[in-house]
Amino acid sequence: MNMTVPDPAKPAAAGPASDPRDTVELFAAAAAHLVEGVAARHRVIGSGAMEQRAEGARVQLSNGRSVLDFGSYAVPLFGHRPQHVLDAVREALDTMPTSTKLLANPYAARLSRRLTDAIDPGRLTRVWFGLNGSDAVEAALKLAIARTGTPAILAVEGGFHGKSMGALAATHDAQRRAPVLGFLGDVRHLPWEPDAVARAAAEAPFAALIVEPVQGEGGGRFLPPQLLRRWSDDAHAAGAFVIADEIQCGLRRCGAMSLSVAHGMQPDAVLFGKPLGGGVMPLSAAVCTEELFAPLRDDPFFHTATFSGHPVSCAAGLAALDLLESGPERFDAGGAALAQGLGALAKKYPDILVDTRCAGLFGVLEFAAAEQAGLAILEAGRRGLLVAQCLTAPAVLRMLPPAAVTEEQLEQAFDILDTCCLKVQRRTVR
Ligand SMILES: Cc1ncc(COP(=O)(O)O)c(C=O)c1O
User: Fold this and answer.
1) In whole angstroms, what is the distance from residue 251 CA to residue 284 CA?
2) Ligand 1, atom 3: nearest CA belongs to which residue?
3) Cβ atoms of 401 and 358 closer than 8 Å
4) Is 138 in the pocket of ligand 1 (CB under 6 A)?
5) Is 409 in the pocket of ligand 1 (CB under 6 A)?
6) Where are the annotated segments for Disordered (predicted)?
7) pLDDT per residue over 95-148, tens digit each?
8) What's the gap in Å between 390 CA and the centre of ligand 1?
């Protein structure tokens, strides 16, 4: 086949916006062809500039400014463009970036060994790889339903598991569920009560309980370990599987590699995503017991996907595990400074902040009202700090700094938040 080879001296046309005219044109394209409301929000937060280049905790904008990134959907846990991950990705790109799917894929095999050794060796021994977190959720739910023959699951009030159909079924977000409710199957969302699982089991059988040990999108709420253990015991006693969704809170974001394993829940699957690809590549995983994985033993093609086990993503995953295993103390130091800064804000603004909480590199500011958090998030963006909002808890602002964050960057971030809180306070008093 005759293919036209692009001129290597010319940069690729799809690169970042490099001059202000590009930016205007690209915002117009986004508004016309992407989701218009999201494009408008991007324009406000970036004050008309676009993201252009990133390094560690900093993102450079197209207008020459830079911002600190404590958001990014909790993905860049190691900072943007960590060298070790970039090197691994480049090596995979230069060797075997696309799997034949008919021959064995060394990257996926190696990562499955490393991941099962790291999480719960000897118990969680099987891995299914996806790209997005919801891929891992879909896989785990499908395996549990197939294995038990029971098309019903339990999930938790405030829980978020993604927006593809199966994942959305487990997600407790009435607004997003409503338009497709009839398609979402048999899911009961449990209140945070110790006997909730036992009561549900007495009413009707279920295939699995799916739970986030720390609810991310639901407002950065930490479920008590004894509640999680009780629910897990009751689900197992009812013959159901326990799926721990650690897509946001796992891999040391909240301290442990796996919170559900550390809490003694004996999960049948732990789900990972977001930073699993080193903050560079899309990668998710359902790390499962032999028992939960049985439908794939009976039919190896029961659940497959074209890009499952993608070599470049798995190469990035191997590098991410290197980073997770080599420097836990960096995570601890960042977490301690984050907790201290949050405590200081709580003391200074008791009239607008109803709570601050922190686990590892997951910090939460809970405002008295949703408009206050909204104002603080927009104001922080304008002043050079990106933080995360919560989909179903709009009064909450999440701070998700990378482990690579420096002391100075954390100080800058808290200076900005201090100014934002002051602005919110003044507006509230008036
Ligand atoms: C706990 C949890 N589970 C699942 C998901 C879905 O992941 P994704 O958006 O990558 O499909 C998310 C995303 O925010 C999440 O926080």
Assistant:
1) 12
2) 161
3) no
4) no
5) no
6) 1-20
7) 999 999 999 999 999 999 999 999 999 999 999 999 999 999 999 999 999 999
8) 12
